[in-house]
Recover the amino acids of this structure.
């Protein structure tokens, strides 16, 4: 089980450690800076932190000593002449890196391989531990990309990258807004994988178009990798071969951003529901986690240890994490709350801190 | 020789040898045009380039460059001529209240 939790916030990266049964902040890196995301590479123990500096652009920092020291890496870059062309009527604009929105290690047989998903929609690959990046042209050059559009941001973005354990050539990426694109050949070719999803926000004749599905977050079960879960803009979906199946009975709401799946039991997944869509606050001012143990047939509402009065915490898409054991979960909120469970969500303990807005949470 | 002042918001990202991270860093750099001087600064501090310029070579939207007290306006082509005593301030554009 992991005893270290990395919380990326608007004002720094907080390293939270478990000691004598209690979780507490052990260190802070980049205090005052906007840390959008942190990635832990299980192959070599490296920590990568994405800094979204308001004035100076996106930066990527790497630590090889569990956060004691950090060194700057390269960031993805778009060449002159590349354009962002979207399907929502906006005029084309030059492509520049807006945000590294997802960062994932490659396979165990691909040392140095990292994947970075960005706003405005480019996927980048590094084979040298982020010393350099290459745009994945096979995805960027697809005609279908010109129909992608932003969901929440002005431009489309890749927020989820799933590399299949055991076969790193199998990649699935979640895009807001362009459904789910997959490659079975290490990124050489791509195909749409969001068949079966439904977009309630689109005109009826486009509602089932896979390329307009606003997937908020996509996760894959480590030991049953044919099973995926997605938190979508207007619902929850599960994939177990064939088309995606909509799961309509998530209580108290099907809206949200985050999802986690148990690493061994694909039927067990967690969500943090909120009031859709214009409000984005907890239902009735109560922070709860919804858990299914039967593949979405039924859900429990978990609230033990979570605030149940006047709580307006929103949990963003990267701010719910599960550790490799499948027992420990953690999430953080836009109002700076953070909660940790050691029993799959039955009970939660609040971190004794009033953090800056939390963007991402991951176990190290 | 132009005098270039890098505001503390930038200098904190420079190597420790550049100076105290909480203070402005001042360097003298030869060049007859602004882009030449900036290139000279980036030769001295290679990682600074991506903080000041975007990937297409334009001065970032939220970075301000003042030459002798006047902010440059053409951020895509910062090629304006300098004189021997020009002073260049590179700073973060102000935001918030």
């Amino acid at each position: 089980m992991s005893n270290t939790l990395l919380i990326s916030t608007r004002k720094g990266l907080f390293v939270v450690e478990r000691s004598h049964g209690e979780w507490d902040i052990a260190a802070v890196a980049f205090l005052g800076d906007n840390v959008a995301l942190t990635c832990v590479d299980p192959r070599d123990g490296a920590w990568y932190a994405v800094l979204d500096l308001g004035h100076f652009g996106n930066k990527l920092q790497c630590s090889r000593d569990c956060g004691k020291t950090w060194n700057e890496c390269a960031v993805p870059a778009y060449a002159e002449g590349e354009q962002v062309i979207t399907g929502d009527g906006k005029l084309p604009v030059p492509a520049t890196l807006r945000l590294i929105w997802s960062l994932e290690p490659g396979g165990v047989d691909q040392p140095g391989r990292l994947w970075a998903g960005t706003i405005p929609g480019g996927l980048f690959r590094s084979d040298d531990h982020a010393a350099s990046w290459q745009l994945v042209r096979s995805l960027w050059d697809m005609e279908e990309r010109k129909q992608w559009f932003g969901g929440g941001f002005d431009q489309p973005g890749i927020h989820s990258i799933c590399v299949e354990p055991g076969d790193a050539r199998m990649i699935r990426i979640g895009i807001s807004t362009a459904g789910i694109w997959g490659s079975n050949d290490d990124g050489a070719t791509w195909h749409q994988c969001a068949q079966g999803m439904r977009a309630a926000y689109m005109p009826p004749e486009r509602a089932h178009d896979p390329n307009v599905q606003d997937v908020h977050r996509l996760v894959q079960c480590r030991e049953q990798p044919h099973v995926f879960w997605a938190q979508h803009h207007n619902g929850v979906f599960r994939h177990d071969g064939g088309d995606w199946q909509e799961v309509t009975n998530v209580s108290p709401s099907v809206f949200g951003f985050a999802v986690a799946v148990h690493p061994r039991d694909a039927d067990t997944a967690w969500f943090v529901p909120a009031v859709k869509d214009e409000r984005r606050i907890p239902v009735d001012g109560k922070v709860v986690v919804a858990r299914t143990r039967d593949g979405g047939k039924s859900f429990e509402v978990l609230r033990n240890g979570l605030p149940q009065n006047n709580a307006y915490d929103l949990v963003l898409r990267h701010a719910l994490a599960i550790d490799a054991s499948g027992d420990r979960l953690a999430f953080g909120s836009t109002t700076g709350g953070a909660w940790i469970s050691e029993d799959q969500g039955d009970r939660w303990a609040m971190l004794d801190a009033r953090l800056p807005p939390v963007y991402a949470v991951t176990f190290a | 020789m132009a005098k270039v002042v890098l505001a503390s918001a930038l200098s904190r990202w420079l190597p420790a040898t550049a100076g105290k991270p909480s203070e402005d860093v001042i360097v003298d750099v030869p060049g007859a045009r602004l882009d030449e001087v900036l290139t000279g600064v980036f030769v001295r501090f290679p990682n600074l380039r991506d903080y000041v310029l975007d990937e297409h070579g334009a001065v970032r939207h939220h970075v301000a460059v003042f030459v002798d007290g006047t902010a440059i306006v053409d951020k895509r082509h910062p090629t304006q001529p300098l004189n021997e005593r020009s002073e260049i301030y590179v700073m973060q554009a102000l935001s918030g209240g």
About this structure: Chain B has a mean pLDDT of 91.
